[in-house]
Automatic annotation (TrEMBL):
This is SWIM-type domain-containing protein. It comes from Liquidambar formosana. GO terms for molecular function: zinc ion binding. Transmembrane segments: none annotated. InterPro entries: MULE_transposase_dom (IPR018289), Znf_PMZ (IPR006564), Znf_SWIM (IPR007527). The keyword Manganese does not apply. The keyword Phosphoprotein does not apply. Keywords: Metal-binding, Zinc, Zinc-finger. Residues 336-368 form the SWIM-type domain.
Length: 481
């Protein structure tokens, strides 16, 4: 009787699971059919959004390999209105079939996320990164050098150098910090690790070699091993004091967190629907920011106006020593040299951010010029509006593929062979600057590495008390005698 009930329960559970899957596919569409719709889907993207780039590849068995998408509005906005700066990153997709989302995002003139291109691939491999960058290179019409901020993994490091000649690759500071902590050996406490991370960040942001080396000496005093690791990590690719590219003080590749959240929200949808959800989000983002910028009356975008005003306030207390040439001396807490014609200050703030530093503003005021004339054009309201000038158009329903001529061979795309394993998938978490896990701290003895229930301090105290009691007892006994 029990066996029959068990079989009945299992059958009911099975039917419920199958029914749920069927209902879900009826509501959202079949995952398998979505892969098979990729050829017509890519055609529709380029048909409805002329100038866009959409392509896919399959493996020898016709199973899905990778898909690349970049809309014309995104390409135009990046090339005409954004800094030549791209952030490369990836997240695992939590769909029915295993996959990874690659993305290249830019920063608009108000330091907002601007998606440029993305891809869905079967796995994060060196070969897939190389393919993604090849497609990105083909989609872009610009030939000017681009600064990339990305992880320093081999596939990215070699592919960026091979495909984008003359471009710079700034290593993501977040990934570097995580690797530093992983590679460190020895029982370092949370506090010691935190101090090393602080010194490492200070070294990365240090504008000049002398301040960079001071930070390294601080790391060396804590751990010679960490010091050697930093020296061997190619500081010319991540330290402001030596990096030749233009990052505008953006040091991490997870700048596109907003974009990745869109993909995470649509992870359960079939691939074509997920891509269309992302398209819709980019379309809405463009509309909102375009409408907002129409009300701006300032020469620079709001965030850049605020930054410039802060430097302007600092400049009021500085002393400028005038010169007949283009070089000036500015005195305050330090003595800095400014070459106004070269947009150069010895503090390096002007060069690193694209906005005049307080020393430059002091000189600009003395010669009767406006600081706005010395700001990067990418921070102007005009450039911001150009960034969002082009529109992304909707894509019609493709549930019914267009009938092809009999002479055309239909392209078959099947799902990738690897399905998602059971259980909750792991995901990258962005936004946290805390890269060191906090150790347990005991509420009794305030020590680290254990909690109150496993604290040995109590045992030590009890043992000490017992010894004292024995000594007192012996003392009393001797006194009595």
């Amino acid at each position: 009787m029990t066996s029959n009930r068990s079989m009945e329960f299992n059958l009911t559970t099975f039917r419920h699971g199958v029914g749920k899957r069927i209902a879900k596919e009826q509501l959202q569409g079949s995952y398998k059919e979505a892969y098979n719709q990729l050829p017509i889907f890519c055609e529709k993207i380029m048909e409805t959004n002329p100038g866009s780039f959409a392509t896919f590849t399959t493996k020898d068995d016709s199973s899905f390999h990778r898909l690349f998408v970049s809309f014309h509005a995104s390409l135009y906005g990046f090339e005409q209105g954004c800094r030549p700066l791209l952030f490369l990153d990836s997240i695992p997709l939590k769909s029915k079939y295993q996959g990874t989302l690659f993305a290249a995002t830019a920063a608009d003139g108000d330091d907002g996320v601007f998606p440029v291109a993305f891809a869905v691939v079967d796995a994060e491999t060196d070969d897939n990164w190389h393919w993604f960058l090849l497609q990105l290179k083909s989609a872009l019409s610009t030939s000017c050098p681009i600064t990339f901020v990305a992880d320093r993994q081999k596939g990215l490091r070699e592919s960026i150098a091979d495909i984008f000649h003359g471009s710079s690759h700034g290593y993501c500071l977040r990934y570097l910090t995580e690797q530093l902590i992983r590679d460190l050996k020895g029982p370092f406490s949370h506090e010691v690790k935190r101090l090393m991370v602080e010194d490492f960040y200070s070294a990365a942001y240090a504008p000049r070699p002398e301040s960079f080396h001071r930070c390294l000496e601080s790391i060396k005093s804590i751990s010679p091993e960490a010091y050697n690791w930093v020296i061997q990590s190619e500081p010319m690719n991540w330290a402001n004091a030596f990096f030749q590219g233009a990052r505008y003080n953006h040091m991490t590749s997870n700048f596109g967190e907003l974009f990745y959240s869109w993909a995470s929200d649509a992870h359960e949808l079939p691939i074509t629907q997920m891509v269309d959800v992302i398209r819709g989000k980019i379309m809405e983002l463009g509309y909102t920011r375009r409408a907002d910028s129409n009300h701006w009356l300032t020469r620079l975008t709001p965030s850049m106006e605020e930054k410039l005003e802060k430097e302007n306030q600092k400049a009021r207390s500085l002393q400028v020593l005038l010169s007949a040439g283009s070089t000036f001396e500015v005195r305050g807490d330090s003595i800095e040299v400014i070459d106004i014609d070269q947009w150069d200050c010895s503090c390096k703030g002007w060069q690193l951010t694209g906005l005049p530093c307080c020393h430059a503003i002091a000189v600009i005021g003395c010669i009767g010029r406006s600081p706005y004339d010395y700001c990067s054009r990418y921070f102007t309201t005009e450039s911001y509006r150009i960034t969002y000038a082009e529109l992304i158009h909707p894509i019609p329903n493709i549930d019914r593929p267009v009938q092809k001529d009999s002479s055309q061979v239909a392209v078959i795309v099947t799902p990738p062979p690897t399905r998602r394993p059971p259980g909750r998938p792991t995901t990258k978490r962005f936004g946290s600057q805390e890269v060191v896990k906090r150790q347990l701290q005991c509420s009794r003895c305030k020590g680290v590495g254990h909690n109150k229930s496993t604290c040995k301090e109590l045992l030590r105290v009890l043992d000490t008390d017992c010894i004292k009691e024995q000594e007192m007892s012996q003392s009393v006994h001797l006194t009595t005698l």
